[in-house]
Every structure is written in structure tokens, then in C-alpha cells.
């Protein structure tokens, strides 16, 4: 049985059994960039996959594009290319920031001390502004998430004529300035707005009942109105990536709409909710135009405090202290968001 | 649970994609809906699932009219080509999804999930996530998920099309085994692959351009196809235009001996013969031809032969001495291997 000629033939019968490679169609799970096509060990098998789908989905392009560092052909050293952006960044961003930082430790009495910080932290106005800023931002973010999720659900999954147009409008809305929304709300609910005008016209009363616009609730309403599209945009993108076959499978398994939303759509939307929500949170913390335009006297947020200290009171060190606090909160939240999103695998 | 299509018509924007389908699937039967893309087979399946609403006609499941029921109240299991597993849920949670949705008690869920995973050979993967599984494993999970709710009807929409060839034949055997283990579950199996249909189905419904062309057992459709489309789609039969005689048919001036069946003498007809039933050399029914192409297919050689301006496909065993490309040859076929189909013939 050890016939050498027989053994010689054996190796020529090529092994037909290629181990079944895992299904690694890159567009299927854009939320899981754990297996980038470039450096995964199974890339040898997967390169035989027919190019059935374009690999460039907008969502998956981000993480995989980042992992694959490429240089322009014929480019000079990386250091040279890094120079212009770094210089510009320092000149127009870091330097002014450093000035603000230095001003915040330069009290009017001269010298360098943390005195301005002590003064500002001790003032009731600052603590109140901090509280107002945080709760307004949190409440507005929660409102945006709820409203944005609900609206995006309807636009993406309830077929109605004009759904596309509405989705386009969301894009356009993002380019509007924030005070525009506030101005529009003033026209409707302001002291001499349409709603109050109708009321006084109908009842003959001297004043209408709608006075909430100058309260924190007015600011909240304006912020939710303005920032909701910022949540909807990433949500709509995420929903468009969702395989409708999953929804149909869930439905055929006996799940009704609420369960499908909760157990199929929501988990897929979490990364989008996190990114949209954190964006809105940071934007709300720093929002100035809306608070200014509602004319809510009692509502002093940190940006408003910076404004009043710097412009009205000429207390530059104090203004800079508040600004630094504002920046720290924003950066801290951003870091938190990065950490959370990385853990979520997004 | 049986399925009945009662004159089901489906249209999208006035475009009829399923035209008055009448079809009955007996309880426990595997019915393959076979046809090219755009033939309406998937639409028919989606009408049973409840994802498309018929313009007219009724869909009955187990004698119950479900035409107006939403998908979640139809009690069906469905498996699709791209698996459609829930990516954030573990395998066992995927399988439990339907049971939870139906409010099955917790203790019952555990047992049923284990049972379904056992049945599909995926018990060892219960804690994995779909993305960690191969395509074949994902499809098994999808089947387990559909079976866990113990549906009376299992709908399979091109379930093997995303798998590679080797895996496909293995899964085909698995499905056949599942069918034996679940004798009460009717299966509606949509495919464009005649091998899948011939292997798995008790009966095949051949569909083309929104219509049902033929329905019968695989053997019936293969041996005595009802029309030219069925003959060519199931088994790639050669089709030659002929004029019928009495016990004969004339093709390009050559008289061939065939059983004319119901075709009247003098009528135009289509002669249908399978590629592997055509022989080389002399025989009872001879036709001269020219070899235009030779394809080696492992166990067989496939010759494309130009016969009187028509292309004839001939499959001969690998051991046969194969004529050269361009050679003038004679082909023949036995009288009993030929089916004469009435006119109205050509698919086009």
C-alpha cells in the first residue's frame, strides 16, 4: 500500500474544502467595526466574495477609514503635512483660549492668583447659572431625544406621502440660526404674538394667557424645537441602514409595533441616539442666542453670565472664569461621550 | 396547517406582480415556488406572511381566512435569504424572540429555545452573537428562530441563496431532515434553483411573469412538462419547433418518430428532449448537426450542437469519446424520451 506512485498522485488532488468563512459582508453591521476588512485574519477568504454591495456606507466608512492610514502618493514626510493644521490650530484656537485662561487668573488688582475663581465660585449668581445651565441642557437633551426618536420613527417607518420632503427639511433646518426659531416662537407665543392676539381679540382681555416664553420653560421649548433635528439626522441615517427584513422577521414572529420599536429598532439606534444626544447636550450648554432672544430675564445660563460679566460689568477675569468652567464642562462631556461610545462599540 | 391561495392578485402601482394565483398546499406538504426573478413567487410568499395586501382574492391558512390579519397574528415562521437575525441579541435571545412576543411563560421559553437549537444543530452556539457565526450557522439560527414558535406554516424565501454551493447541498439535506421531523408543518419554499426544488419539494409550482405556469410533483414536471417554459426551466430541456404528424413530428425536413399525444396532425408543436437523453451517433431519431462548443463539467461533457439553426444541448458521459469543436456529427434520441408539447409553444 506504500506505492510511491500512488502517493505521488495524492497531492495533486487539490483539497476542495475551503472552510466556510464567516459572513463578513461589511455593510451588514455598520455599528460593529470590530472586523475591519483590511486587517482581519479572514481577509484571505473574504477577498473571494463577489462585490455584491458597495463597501462605502457612510456610517461604516468612518471607523474603518480611520484604521487604514494612507498617505497621498509622492507626499513628503508626515511631519511636514502636520505642520499647517497644527500652526493654524494654535494661532486661531489654542492661543485665544490660553489668553482666556490667563485672564481668568489675572485679577483686576494685579498679579496672578486664583482669586477670581474663588470670587466667582462664591457668588450665588454663578451657582444659580450653573444649575440653570445644567438642568436646562439636560432637560432639552431629554426632550430632543424623545421627540427626535418619535419623529424619526414616523418619517423612516410610517409610509406617508412627503416623508422624503420632511427628511430633507430636517437637513435644511440644521442650517438655520438658533435665534430664528426663537424669533418665530416670539411671533406665535410672544406678548404681542398671534396666540395672545387671538385670545385678546376673542375675549377682549387686556393680556393673553401665554407668558411662558420669558420663563425657563420658554427657553426649554425653543431649545427642544431647534435642537431636535440634530438628533433626527443621525437617527434617520441609522434607520436607513436598518434591514427591513429584521422588522418583518420580528413581525412574523408575533411582535407588534411597540415591541419591534423597543427590541429591534431601539438597540440599533442607540449609537445614533448617543451621538445626537451628546451633541445636543454640548450645544445646549453653550447656547446663547436662544436664551438672549426669548428675553427671559430670570434665566441666566453660563454663556449669559459670561456675556453680562464681560460686556455689562466689564469684569473680564470673572467672565473668563465662567468661560473656562463652560469649556471644561463641554470637554468633560465630550470625553465622557467618547468613552461611552467606545464601550458601546460605536 | 395548509395554505390556500384563492385567486390572489397583487399589484404595485397598477403593475400586476401576481396574477390570480390559485394554489393549495396540503398540511405537511413542501411546496416549492419555482421561477425566475420577477415571476411573482416572492410576492406570493409575502402575501401569505402578510407583508403585501392582495388587490383581490383570499389567503387561507388552515382553512382560516387571514387576508385581513396583520403578520403578527398569522402564526407563521419565516426564513429569508439574508437571515435577518437581530444583531444585538445572542443566538438564544434571537430564538426566544418569538416566544417572548407571544407571551410564552419563562420556563417554557428555555425549553423551547433549547429544543429549537438542538433541532438545527446550533445548541453549542447559544451564547454567541450573530456576527460571530458563519453564514450557514446564521441561517440555522434563523430557522431555529422560526421553528421555536411552532408555526403551522414555514415560509422560506430563497433560504440558501446566500450560501456557497457546498454549504447549500448540506443545508438542503438538513431541511429535508427537518421536514421529516416536523411532518405537520407545511412549507412554502421560494427558489429560482431547480435543484433545490426537485430535491426538497413534494410538489413544485412553476411561476413565470406573475402567473402560475404548472404545478405538479417533481417527477411529473420533469417527465411530462405541461408547457415549454416548464420544460426548459425544470431540467433545461431542449425545445425544437416541429410540425406534428401522425405518430411523427417533422423538424427541418426530417421526420422523427414521437408520441404525438393530444397534438393534432398538421399543428405546430414543440419537441422537448432532455440534454442527457440525446445520444451521439446513429439511432432511431437522427438529426445532423455541427458542434459549436464543448464544456467539460466533470462527470459529463456538455456539447452545444447547431441543428438546423437551433441550438441543441447534449450531455454525454465523460467516458464518451467527444467529437472535436466544429465537427459534423449526428445526434439521436429515443422515441420514449421525447415529449411533444402543443403549440402556443415558445416561451417568448
UniProtKB/TrEMBL annotation, chain B:
Q: Which residues form the ABC transporter domain?
A: 3-234
EC annotation? 7.6.2.9
| Superkingdom per UniProt | Bacteria
A Pfam family cross-referenced in the UniProt record is ABC_tran
Which GO terms of the molecular function aspect are on file? ABC-type quaternary ammonium compound transporting activity; ATP binding
Q: Where are the transmembrane segments?
A: none
Name under which the protein is recorded:
ABC-type quaternary amine transporter
Alphabetized, the UniProt keywords read: ATP-binding, Nucleotide-binding, Transport
> Which SMART domains would you find in this protein's record?
AAA (SM00382)
InterPro entries tied to this protein = AAA+_ATPase (IPR003593), ABC_SmlMolc_Importer (IPR050093), ABC_transporter-like_ATP-bd (IPR003439), ABC_transporter-like_CS (IPR017871), Mo/tungstate-bd_C_term_dom (IPR008995), P-loop_NTPase (IPR027417), Transp-assoc_OB_typ2 (IPR013611)
The organism is Streptomyces doudnae
Amino acid at each position: 500500500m506504500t506505492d510511491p506512485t500512488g502517493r505521488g498522485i495524492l497531492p495533486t488532488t487539490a483539497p476542495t474544502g475551503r472552510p466556510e468563512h464567516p459572513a463578513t459582508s461589511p455593510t451588514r453591521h455598520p455599528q460593529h467595526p470590530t472586523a475591519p476588512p483590511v486587517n482581519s485574519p479572514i481577509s484571505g477568504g473574504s477577498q473571494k466574495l463577489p462585490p455584491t454591495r458597495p463597501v462605502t456606507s457612510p456610517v461604516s466608512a468612518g471607523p474603518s477609514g480611520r484604521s487604514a492610514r494612507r498617505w497621498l502618493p509622492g507626499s513628503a514626510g508626515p511631519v511636514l503635512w502636520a505642520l499647517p493644521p497644527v500652526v493654524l490650530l494654535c494661532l486661531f484656537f489654542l492661543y485665544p483660549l490660553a489668553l482666556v485662561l490667563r485672564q481668568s487668573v489675572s485679577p483686576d488688582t494685579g498679579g496672578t492668583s486664583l482669586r477670581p475663581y474663588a470670587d466667582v465660585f462664591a457668588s450665588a449668581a454663578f451657582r444659580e447659572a450653573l444649575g440653570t445651565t445644567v438642568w436646562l441642557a439636560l432637560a432639552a437633551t431629554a426632550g430632543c431625544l424623545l421627540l427626535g426618536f418619535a419623529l424619526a420613527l414616523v418619517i423612516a417607518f410610517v409610509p406617508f406621502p412627503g416623508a422624503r420632503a420632511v427628511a430633507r427639511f430636517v437637513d435644511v433646518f440644521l442650517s438655520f440660526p438658533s435665534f430664528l426659531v426663537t424669533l418665530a416662537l416670539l411671533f406665535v407665543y410672544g406678548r404681542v404674538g398671534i396666540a395672545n392676539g387671538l385670545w385678546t381679540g376673542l375675549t377682549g382681555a387686556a393680556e393673553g394667557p401665554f407668558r411662558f416664553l420669558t420663563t425657563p420653560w420658554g427657553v426649554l421649548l425653543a431649545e427642544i424645537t431647534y435642537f431636535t433635528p440634530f438628533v433626527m439626522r443621525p437617527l434617520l441615517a441609522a434607520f436607513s441602514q436598518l434591514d427591513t427584513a429584521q422588522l418583518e422577521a420580528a413581525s412574523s414572529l408575533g411582535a407588534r409595533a411597540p415591541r419591534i420599536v423597543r427590541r429591534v429598532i431601539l438597540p440599533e439606534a442607540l449609537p445614533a441616539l448617543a451621538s445626537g444626544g451628546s451633541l445636543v447636550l454640548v450645544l445646549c450648554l453653550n447656547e446663547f442666542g436662544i436664551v438672549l432672544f426669548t428675553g427671559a430675564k430670570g434665566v441666566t445660563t453660563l454663556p449669559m453670565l459670561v456675556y453680562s460679566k464681560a460686556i455689562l460689568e466689564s469684569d473680564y477675569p470673572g467672565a473668563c472664569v465662567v468661560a473656562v468652567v463652560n469649556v471644561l464642562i463641554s470637554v468633560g462631556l465630550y470625553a465622557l461621550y467618547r468613552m461611552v461610545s467606545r464601550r458601546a462599540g460605536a | 396547517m395548509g395554505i390556500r391561495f384563492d385567486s390572489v392578485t397583487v399589484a404595485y402601482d397598477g403593475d400586476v406582480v401576481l396574477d390570480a394565483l390559485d394554489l393549495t398546499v396540503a398540511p405537511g406538504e413542501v411546496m416549492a415556488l419555482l421561477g425566475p426573478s420577477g415571476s411573482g413567487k416572492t410576492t406570493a410568499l409575502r402575501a401569505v406572511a402578510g407583508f403585501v395586501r392582495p388587490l383581490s382574492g383570499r389567503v387561507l391558512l388552515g382553512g382560516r381566512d387571514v387576508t385581513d390579519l396583520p403578520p403578527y397574528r398569522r402564526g407563521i415562521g419565516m426564513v429569508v435569504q439574508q437571515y435577518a437575525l437581530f444583531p444585538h441579541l445572542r443566538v438564544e435571545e434571537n430564538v426566544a424572540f418569538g416566544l417572548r412576543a407571544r407571551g410564552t411563560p419563562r420556563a417554557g421559553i428555555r425549553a423551547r429555545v433549547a429544543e429549537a437549537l438542538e433541532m438545527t444543530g446550533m445548541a453549542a452556539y447559544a451564547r454567541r452573537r450573530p456576527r460571530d457565526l458563519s453564514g450557514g450557522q446564521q441561517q440555522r439560527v434563523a430557522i431555529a428562530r422560526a421553528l421555536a414558535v411552532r408555526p403551522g406554516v414555514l415560509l422560506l424565501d430563497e433560504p440558501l441563496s446566500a450560501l456557497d454551493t457546498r454549504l447549500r447541498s448540506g443545508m438542503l439535506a438538513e431541511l429535508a431532515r427537518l421536514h421529516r421531523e416536523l411532518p405537520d408543518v407545511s412549507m412554502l419554499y421560494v427558489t429560482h434553483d431547480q435543484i433545490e426544488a426537485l430535491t426538497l419539494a413534494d410538489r413544485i409550482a412553476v411561476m413565470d411573469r406573475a402567473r402560475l405556469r404548472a404545478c405538479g410533483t417533481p417527477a411529473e414536471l420533469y417527465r411530462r412538462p405541461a408547457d415549454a417554459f416548464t420544460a426548459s426551466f425544470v431540467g433545461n430541456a431542449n425545445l425544437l419547433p416541429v410540425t406534428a404528424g401522425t405518430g411523427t413530428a417533422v423538424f427541418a425536413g426530417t421526420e422523427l418518430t414521437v408520441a404525438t399525444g393530444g397534438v393534432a396532425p398538421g399543428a405546430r408543436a414543440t419537441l422537448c428532449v432532455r440534454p442527457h437523453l440525446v445520444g451521439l451517433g446513429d439511432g432511431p431519431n437522427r438529426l445532423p448537426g455541427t458542434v459549436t462548443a464543448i464544456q467539460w463539467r466533470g462527470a459529463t461533457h456538455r456539447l452545444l450542437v447547431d441543428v438546423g439553426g437551433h441550438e441543441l444541448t447534449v450531455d454525454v458521459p465523460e467516458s464518451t469519446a467527444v467529437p472535436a469543436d466544429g465537427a459534423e456529427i449526428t445526434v439521436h434520441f429515443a422515441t420514449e424520451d421525447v415529449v411533444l408539447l402543443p403549440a402556443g409553444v415558445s416561451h417568448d
